[in-house]
Design brief:
Elements (H helix, E strand, L loop, with lengths): L2 H27 L15 H21 L11 H5 L8 H22 L1 H4 L1 H8 L1 H15 L14 H25 L25
């Protein structure tokens, strides 16, 4: 197995982990309870959600670095960090780099979410969808062998990417449908003070 083949395989692992992470995050946002629902066991879904993010980040970091070990790609470190002028597929690889930087930011802000505060952290966490979109574009359009060959949508690797994208799209659609079906939040009305009778004013019978 060449360095490019290994890089491609690890990139698919990163995409699979990121897909799983987003799907678990969608379940958490719907207050999913694994004891009451499937698998009817105590599962720390928050911990699984966190560790899939860490694993996806690790795989996403290794994925481009392996290209440096290829004797045919002619990539340098600057082409990995800033692939705008990369020798092969600069636009597609820029999408991959943008996804990696968004993933780094998302994981870092989530790790320090208590220090940041939920009000600021929650909008930042929506960057997950942007990073998945950029990662999906990179995964769909890239040629694993860096030869700029036409994309075969029925190739096994591309089918895996397409299934991951479909699962996330279906998950988001289900999450939106779930939100629409929820009752509107109750408005908490301030308690009115009971008016006391003025002194000297009696009740007329």
């Amino acid at each position: 197995m060449s360095a490019l083949d290994l890089s491609s395989s690890i990139g698919l692992v990163a995409l699979g982990l990121l897909t799983l992470n987003i799907l678990i995050g969608l379940l958490l946002s719907m207050h999913y309870n694994p004891v009451r629902n499937w698998p009817h066991r105590r599962v720390d879904t928050v911990k699984v959600h966190n560790w899939t993010a860490y694993a996806a980040l690790a795989a996403s970091l290794v994925h481009p670095l392996l290209i440096l070990a290829s004797s045919t790609a002619h990539f340098h470190l600057v082409d990995i960090v800033y692939p705008v002028h990369a020798p092969k597929q600069p636009i597609v690889n820029t999408f991959g780099a943008a996804a990696l930087y968004l993933l780094l930011a998302t994981v870092a802000t989530s790790y320090f979410r208590f220090e940041i505060g939920r009000r600021i952290w929650k909008p930042l966490h929506y960057a997950t969808y942007a990073l998945f979109a950029t990662y999906a574009v990179h995964a769909i359009l890239t040629d694993p062998n860096l030869k700029d060959l036409p994309i075969d949508p029925f190739d096994a690797e591309k089918v895996f990417v397409e299934v991951c994208i479909l699962l996330v799209v279906l998950g988001i659609a289900y999450r939106v449908r779930w939100a629409w079906r929820q009752p509107p939040p109750r408005k908490h009305m301030p308690k009115q003070r009971r008016s006391l009778p003025r002194p000297g004013v009696g009740r007329i019978l």
